[in-house]
Write a structure and sequence with these properties.
- The chain is an alpha+beta fold.
- It has one domain: Thiol Ester Dehydrase, Chain A, CATH 3.10.129.
- 16% of the residues lie in helices and 38% in strands.
- It is built from one helix and five strands.
- The protein has a five-stranded antiparallel sheet with strand order 1-3-4-5-2, covered by helices on one side.
- A hairpin with a 3-residue loop joins β3 and β4.
- The radius of gyration is 14 Å and the shape is elongated.
- The two termini are 14 Å apart.
C-alpha cells in the first residue's frame, strides 16, 4: 500500500467564495472541499480529476473561513478513502474510485 496523502488547506477569510456562502455565518462550501480532494488524489495518481468518481461522501460539520483543514487519503489499487478534519472535528469522510 502507498504512503497516505496528507495535505493542509486554509481558505482565507477574505476569499470571494464567502460573499454568498452564507452571509452572517460563512462556511467553506462542500464542493470546494471535494474539489480539493479530487485534485490531490488525481495529482498523486497522475490522472485528471475527471477520471475519478466520488463513490460516497458524508459531511459532518462546517469548516470556518481561515481554519486549517487536514486531508488524509489512503490510496488503494482502484479506490481511496479520505478524511477531512479540523483539529479533532471530522469535517467530511468519503470514498473515491477509478478504473485501474
Amino acid at each position: 500500500m502507498a504512503e497516505p496523502i496528507v495535505r493542509t488547506l486554509r481558505v482565507a477569510a477574505d476569499h470571494p467564495i464567502f460573499a454568498g456562502h452564507f452571509p452572517g455565518r460563512p462556511i467553506v462550501p462542500g464542493v470546494m472541499l471535494l474539489e480539493w480532494v479530487l485534485n490531490e488524489v488525481a495529482a498523486a495518481l497522475g490522472r485528471a480529476p475527471a477520471a475519478l468518481r466520488l463513490r460516497e461522501c458524508k459531511f459532518f460539520t462546517p469548516l470556518a473561513p481561515g481554519a486549517n483543514a487536514e486531508l488524509r487519503c489512503e490510496l488503494g489499487d482502484a479506490r481511496c478513502g479520505f478524511d477531512i478534519r479540523c483539529d479533532s472535528a471530522s469535517i467530511a469522510r468519503g470514498v473515491l474510485e477509478w478504473t485501474p
